[in-house]
Design goal:
Radius of gyration: 29 Å
Distance between the termini: 75 Å
Largest sheet: 7 strands, mixed
Bound molecules: zinc ion
Structural class: alpha/beta
CATH topology of the largest domain: Alkaline Phosphatase, subunit A
Length: 569
């Protein structure tokens, strides 16, 4: 009897203490659920995003909202309970501030890539970034909401009650919510972390912060490891036989462009009008037989930038010198400007390579894994960020401009103004309406890419520069005869046939007249871009004693056109 009595008294006392913390529960629910719901409203329009995602995140939120008071109420000392209560208020408010800031500014919920973007950019950059955007109204709404919630919970839900009728039901309510905590939320988060794809949209704020930071840390560590490897490969026996004086080399790195859809390569629709006229004026040199070494970015670009050669090299690509290392040593100031991801499962190798450059500027803050994000960064956002040789007070300048180019989803690659082609323009009647639409969007992305590449050329026109454009790989856009419904990376013809072109500015042409001849001779030769470094370096008169590469140097008289060009994944 006495034990039962003791339990009753304890339960009653506990529920009384718990009841004084109901304001905290309500505050968590008001703020954290708000993020789930308002987030979805703000991000609405992003593909796949629906109210279904609210359920798991709301249950997780509810659990935290009741678990915290349940734990605090165990503590006997009122002083400690109160201190913890206010600490919880502060943590929840800060979480809310951070998340609503990310939501309004980055147009995404918190994720590992956002955490990286925030931590990686130095203070100066962050200030510039914040300065460059006028604070949107939603953020003021968020702060207003926070103040109202704070006032409401602190003012109306304070004090205690001795009525069991009130306190006991609250205890039961709290305990029930805990029971609902979906183990799936935890399991899914853990699985996501292990695979590199945490589904942040189905988590509450606290899980987002925890798993986001953990994932970010893991990715950075992986990249650092790779960076250390490529940074180690020694460059020995470097000689420079030509003197170009002050000059710039601009490499525009395209993405997912199959040259068979470009009018400059003979496609029937006018998808590259600006490049067409540059070619007609004899200023732009088109190479018409170039293949990518692999059909996807992460496999292709390391082969493009390192001295690795498909089928010939017996080592890993990262054991060989990378072009940026060589250029650095040859006295170039190397700069990497990118509209792609600065970190990420797929692009870790490329991101690690970019860090070999003396400076980097990544303008994109989210990754493709943040599919809920509404941040649209068309390649046009790169134009105001183009750098010049004089910006770095360099004599020799090399800039790589990594475009998002023609990567799927195609419709997200160009602004409304470039929506020129529609499904009606696609005459292949074997295709379904949706596939025709997809093809038309691809053509529009090429039209926009035509504008971007020609704008970049225009920007450097007055300088003494060599400008090179090629795509990392091609793409199949519902044109595989064996599988018409397929769209994406492929090792078939269209997945590897890429555009490759070079432009010599008037000053460069005048100073180095021999370049034009070398380029013209190479234009129709069979080439694969895994031999890009030795070809460019050869053109610049840079040689490595340990890597004699005249046979794979496209501009050398001993270039071997019969080399087998087989892709590798
Ligand atoms: Zn790619």
């Amino acid at each position: 009897m006495s034990i039962i009595n003791w339990i009753r008294t304890q339960t009653y006392n506990y529920s009384k203490k718990l009841f004084t913390l109901r304001g905290l529960s309500l505050y968590s629910i008001l703020l954290l659920s708000f993020l789930n719901i308002y987030g979805i409203i703000l991000l609405k329009g992003a593909d796949y995003l629906s109210y279904e995602h609210i359920l798991p995140s709301s249950i997780a939120t509810l659990t935290w909202a009741t678990l915290t008071p349940l734990l605090i109420a165990i503590i006997p000392s009122k002083l400690i309970r109160d201190s913890l209560k206010y600490l919880a208020y502060i943590i929840i408010s800060l979480t809310f501030i951070v998340e609503s800031y990310v939501l309004c500014i980055y147009k995404s919920i918190l994720s590992d890539s956002i955490i990286l973007a925030i931590t990686e950019s130095n203070i100066q950059e962050s200030l510039e970034f914040i300065h460059s955007i006028s604070l949107p109204e939603p953020i003021f709404f968020c702060f207003f909401y926070l103040l109202i919630s704070l006032f409401l919970t602190l003012h109306f839900f304070k004090g205690s009650s001795t009525k069991r009728l009130k306190t006991i039901p609250f205890l039961i309510l709290c305990l029930t919510t805990i029971g609902f905590y979906p183990s799936e939320v935890y399991d899914a988060a853990k699985r996501g972390f292990e695979s590199g794809y945490p589904d942040y949209i189905e988590m509450s704020s606290f899980e987002r912060i925890y798993w986001g930071a953990k994932t970010c840390q893991k990715e950075v560590a992986t990249m650092q490891e790779l960076f250390d490897k490529i940074n180690k490969s020694e460059i020995k026996g470097l000689t420079i036989s030509k003197d170009f004086g002050e000059h710039s080399i601009i490499l525009i790195q395209g993405e997912s462009l199959n040259r068979n859809y470009m009018s400059c390569y003979g496609y029937k629709e006018k998808t590259t009008p600006k490049l067409d006229s540059l070619i007609a004026e004899g200023k732009l040199y088109l190479f018409n037989n170039v293949l990518a070494p692999a059909p996807n970015t992460s496999a292709s670009l390391p082969r493009v930038y390192s001295l690795y050669l498909n089928q010939q090299t017996k080592k890993h690509w990262y054991e060989l010198p990378v072009i940026f290392n060589i250029l650095n040593q040859a006295g170039y100031y190397t700069h990497w400007l990118s509209n792609q991801e600065s970190v990420g499962l797929w692009l870790n190798s490329v991101a690690a390579i970019s860090r070999l450059c003396k400076s980097q500027n990544y303008i994109r803050k989210t990754t493709s894994r943040d599919w809920w994000s509404k941040q649209t960064n068309y390649d046009g956002a790169l134009l105001p960020k183009l750098a010049r040789r004089v910006d770095f007070k360099a004599e020799k300048f090399f800039e790589l401009i990594h475009l998002m180019g023609n990567h799927g989803e195609y419709a997200e690659r160009y602004p409304k103004k470039f929506e020129v082609f529609t499904a009606k323009d696609i005459t292949d009647n074997r295709l379904k309406q949706r596939q025709k639409q997809g093809r038309a969007e691809y053509l529009n992305s090429i039209l926009y890419n035509d504008y971007i590449v020609s704008e970049i050329i225009k920007f450097y026109k007055q300088e003494k520069a060599i400008i090179i454009y090629f795509s990392d790989h091609g793409c199949i856009v519902y044109d595989d005869e064996e599988n018409l419904s397929f769209c994406g990376h492929s090792s078939k013809k269209g997945g590897l046939e890429i555009p490759f072109m070079m432009y010599l500015t008037p000053k460069m042409k005048q100073a180095q007249p021999e370049l034009e001849e070398l380029i013209k001779e190479a234009q129709s030769k069979a080439f694969m871009t895994d031999a890009f470094p030795e070809s460019l370096l050869g053109l610049l008169g840079i040689e490595l004693a340990d890597y004699p590469r005249s046979q794979t140097n496209l501009f050398s008289p001993s270039y071997d056109e019969t080399r087998e060009r087989k892709f590798e994944w």
